[in-house]
């Protein structure tokens, strides 16, 4: 059986301050995330998310339902409970405006290589992925 989903990859820059970066990592540590934020992501169609860090650069992999519409989902996410509060909190660590939404902060990344890639995709539309389960 195959599972089909869309993948979005994004990046964001943090403030170049070691103490702030460590605090930011603690905010995202296992068990530290706000349940309302995770629930909101699931509500808009995000099924899995990972964030990696290298220096001051964050890299996010966001897997979504195959029918996911990035623009609509990010607009809806911004209206969900505690989302604005979360964005205001984490903005102090990020190189962004304090009132920027998640959509404004995280820049979509263009995929330039995939092993055995069969077709081209636009970062805004997501990359269709299939896995056998």
Distance between the termini: 6 Å
One letter per element, helices H and strands E, the order comes to EHHEEHHHEE
Domain module count: 1
In terms of DSSP E residues, the strand content is: 25-35%
CATH architecture: 2-Layer Sandwich
CATH class: Alpha Beta
The largest sheet, given as strand count, sense and whether it forms a barrel, is:
5 strands, antiparallel
Helix content: 25-40%
Molecular shape: globular
Radius of gyration: 15 Å
Oligomeric state of the chains in view:
single chain
**Individual helix count:** 5
- Which structural class should the secondary elements be placed in? alpha+beta
State mean pLDDT (0 to 100 scale): 91
Low-confidence stretches: none
CATH names the topology as: Alpha-Beta Plaits
Total beta-strand segments: 5
What does this structure look like?
The chain has 133 residues and is an alpha+beta fold. The protein has one domain: Alpha-Beta Plaits, CATH 3.30.70. The chain contains five helices and five strands; from the N terminus they run βααββαααββ. It has helices at residues 18-27, 35-43, 70-77, 83-91, 102-105, and strands spanning 2-13, 46-54, 57-65, 107-108, 127-132. Strands 1, 2, 3, 4 and 5 form a five-stranded antiparallel sheet that branches. The model has no long low-confidence stretch (mean pLDDT 91).
């Amino acid at each position: 059986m195959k599972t089909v989903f869309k993948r979005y990859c994004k990046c964001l820059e943090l403030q170049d301050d070691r103490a702030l970066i460590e605090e930011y990592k603690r905010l995202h540590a296992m068990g530290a995330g706000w349940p309302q934020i995770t629930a909101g992501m699931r509500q808009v169609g995000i099924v899995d998310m990972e964030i990696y860090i290298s220096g001051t650069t964050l890299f996010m992999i966001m897997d979504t339902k195959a029918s996911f519409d990035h623009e609509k989902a990010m607009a809806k996410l911004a209206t969900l409970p505690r989302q604005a509060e979360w964005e205001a909190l984490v903005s102090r660590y990020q190189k962004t405006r304090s009132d920027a939404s998640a959509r404004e902060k995280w820049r979509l990344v263009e995929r330039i290589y995939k092993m055995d890639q069969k077709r081209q995709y636009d970062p805004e539309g997501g990359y269709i992925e299939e896995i056998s389960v």
